[in-house]
Amino acid sequence: MKNLFKLLSLVFTLLFIWAAYVQYNDPDALLWYAIYGVASAASLFFYLGKLNFTGAIILSGIYFIGTFVLWPDKFEGITIGNGDIVNIERGRESLGLLIVAIVMLIYALRLRPENKSKV
């Protein structure tokens, strides 16, 4: 099971790098480079055994907050042409943050400290 999560973290490292790369034509590309760059670094740290529980929980919380802050007033999907472009863009951005938040939460659950007390 440990090897499966290591493999998945390596896959997510590459996916988050790709997600950052495709932001090159976005008006706020630097922000998204940072957002996905931190996610890819955290995934790489998980793979290397350098990510700790606290870091994963904090990142997950930040990405969940970002998801709710960016969530559009009216969700119109993610396909261009099916609604207001601003709502669609915000929907895409918030869903991207939600994916990262869930991945970070999974890392945290894998890293959670074991309860060693015998009460």
The coarse overall form would be: elongated
Radius of gyration (Å): 16 Å
What is the distance, rounded to the nearest whole angstrom, between the alpha carbons of the first and last residues? 28 Å
Major sheet size, sense and barrel closure: none
Low-confidence runs = none
N-to-C series of helices and strands: HHHH
Tags for this entry?
119 residues; mainly alpha
Topology:
Elements: H1 2-21, H2 29-48, H3 53-70, H4 85-111
Helix pairs in contact: 1-2, 2-4, 3-4
Briefly characterize the structure.
By secondary structure, the protein is mainly α. It contains 4 helices and no strands.
Report on the structure:
- The chain is mainly alpha-helical and 119 residues long.
- It has one domain.
- Helices cover 71% and strands 0% of the residues.
- It is built from four helices and no strands.
- The protein has helices spanning 2-21, 29-48, 53-70, 85-111.
- Helix 1 (2-21) runs antiparallel to helix 2 (29-48) and helix 3 packs antiparallel against helix 4.
- The longest helix is centred in the last third of the chain and has 27 residues, at 85-111.
- It is elongated.
- The relative contact order is 0.14.
